[in-house]
Amino acid sequence: MLGLVAFVMLSPQAQEAIFGEFGGVEDFLQSQLAPYHVYPNEATYTLSKIADVSMGGTTGTGSVTETILIPPVLRSSLSGAAQFTFVDGQGNEAATTLQETLELSMVVGGESVNIPIDGLPDRSYSNRVTTASGHEVWWPAVGTGDEDCPIAKCVIVRVNLEAGEQLRYSFDVRVKSTAYSWWDNARVPQWVDGQTYGINMDNSGTFNDINQRGNGVRKAEFAGDEWYYRDSTGDYAINGTDALVMSTADMIAASLPEGEGSNAYAFSRASFDYLHQYISYDRDAPTTARSGPTCLAALTGDCDEQTNAFFSILRTRGVPGWYAFGVLGDPFLSNSGWEAHAWGYILLPMSDTWCNERNIVLQSCFVEAQVDVVNNKWLLSTPTAYIDWVEQYDVTGSAVYDYYHPVRSITYGANGGIDRARSFETLGDVEFAGTSFKVKKYVESLD
Fold first, then answer.
1. Pairing outcome for strands 74-75 and 97-108
2. Residue 237: enclosing H or E segment and its boundaries?
């Protein structure tokens, strides 16, 4: 409201300048009244990923074996991608470090085992650490064996239980994370890394340009019509050939400004806004996530399901999208509000003209940016969105299955059973650095 009062007091020339920044009166009014999230520019914290296990019965022994992924060092330009990154003051291409691990430990029944922050050198099962209470910890190479990491560097813990015993084990990660925006828009403060070099509708390329970016690898890997067939539900999690998905995509495309029907940014952003407008968040979503088409039909979904819907729509136009998995927290609640979360990355090409004017090789002239549909984070990485793993291409879908099924084995004695409850919390205070900023929730004006 104070913003509206201040606006009225401005001169016509100043008001005109504001309209130019916000795209008109309606956009300006929305900017003043819209709900928002607040995020810090930088945060350092220790996240504890906890499992409480208990074994029933009166006799016998049992065990739980779990794989816990070691978090990757995450940069604004993904490792291995020939992606355009901004040029620093010395003329060097530079990528911002979004997430880095400072310390790792596995705590089992109160006994702590220090883990190398990158899991190297490997420690195989034959060379495992055995605690004084007989629990086992190792951090092996990635492989196909029963004692190997299945999809990425990991720690494997095996806790051994007696009948009636209860035990807590936790994976404690001290991490430093920094905000980053791949979006060039006045709604993102210029001091947030990446904003000045980001993408918008004016500098975006077309759907056809996607084939010419990154040697077409992401296009081949993450833009196919269908992805991740779930036998239990009889459908694909992402499906760009479904009739409802295709009609929704056509409706979104028809809403774009004249001449922008093939603009990759405009279509992707309009799809993001469509989901915000019509799909509600479901806190009671089914255990097996709804597919993209089912989420659209139900008009509701949780984080996985709305991301499935978003990617399904994008794939009707060949825009690549793939998953990020981890834990999301509210930084200003510190020890509360952490929960498992899934969101995504998308590839968007810069236009040939924009790239050529800056002497950027076309193959590298694109962004690979995070999008969190349910939390209104458009081309934005925030410090307390902790990433376990960024999806790697796997035609079988087994890697994603393995991520969702970290418990390798459970054994127990006669007439017993093992219960396992998962939770997350921060240990100590969350340390903030830099200025916090608001991310407001309202439709982007593409006119």
1. antiparallel
2. strand 235-239
Q: Which residues pair with 230 in a beta bridge?
A: 235
- Do residues 83 and 94 make contact, with C-beta atoms less than 8 angstroms apart? no
Question: What does the block give as tokens for 183?
Answer: 């979006």
Question: What phi and psi, each to the nearest 5 degrees, are found at residue 144?
Answer: -105, 0
Tell me which residue of 305, 301, 288 sits closest to 239, measured CA to CA: 305
pLDDT tens-place string over residues 285-306: 888 889 999 999 999 999 999 9
Q: For residues 122 and 145, give the distance between their C-alpha atoms in angstroms, rounded to a whole number.
A: 14
Looking at residue 334, its pLDDT comes to 52
Please enumerate in sequence order all residues whose Cβ is within 8 A of that of 180, keeping only pairs 6 or more positions apart, or say none: 76, 96, 98, 192, 193, 194, 380, 381
Q: Are 16 and 7 in contact (CB under 8 A)?
A: no
Q: Are 230 and 288 in contact (CB under 8 A)?
A: yes
Half-sphere exposure for 387 (CA within 13 Å, toward CB): 26
Residue pointed to by tokens 């509210």: 330
Domain boundaries, the chain: 2-33, 42-77+94-172+401-416+424-433, 175-398
In the chain, pLDDT over 70 holds for what percent of residues? 87
User: CA-to-CA distance for 429 and 335, rounded, in angstroms?
Assistant: 8
Cα–Cα distance for residue pair 229/4, rounded to 1 Å: 50
Residue 381 pLDDT > 70: yes
The packing angle between helices 243-254 and 264-278, to 10°, is 110
Which residue in this structure is represented by tokens 């968040």? 281
Torsion of CA 173, 102, 150, 61, to 10 degrees: -40
Write down how long the chain is: 447
Q: Averaged over 243-247, what is the pLDDT? A: 98
pLDDT at 7: 47
Domain 175-398 has CATH 3.10.620: yes
